[in-house]
């Protein structure tokens, strides 16, 4: 059985994988919306995944002063918006 923290990390990593695909130019919005819908179906999970994504965004921004991964960060921000909206 997966513990609660692992579930949060698993979903955050799934959002990151979708953002990576979008960053590479592949369509991502449908997958992003579908995953967000799945996560928001669990109200206690959505804010925790959004928090994990905000942490991930911070790590990416801190390690990327040239902002090469800016488009990926924007997709992750979009995911946070879907989880909090």
UniProtKB/TrEMBL annotation:
Source species, domain of life: Bacteria
This protein's name: Tsi6 domain-containing protein
Protein's organism: Azospirillum aestuarii
Source lineage: Bacteria, Pseudomonadati, Pseudomonadota, Alphaproteobacteria, Rhodospirillales
């Amino acid at each position: 059985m997966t513990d609660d923290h692992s579930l949060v990390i698993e979903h955050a990593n799934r959002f990151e994988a979708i953002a990576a695909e979008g960053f590479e130019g592949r369509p991502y919005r449908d997958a992003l919306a579908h995953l967000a819908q799945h996560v928001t179906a669990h109200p206690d999970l959505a804010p925790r995944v959004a928090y994990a994504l905000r942490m991930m965004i911070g790590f990416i921004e801190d390690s990327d002063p040239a902002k090469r991964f800016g488009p990926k960060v924007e997709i992750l921000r979009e995911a946070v918006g879907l989880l909090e909206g």
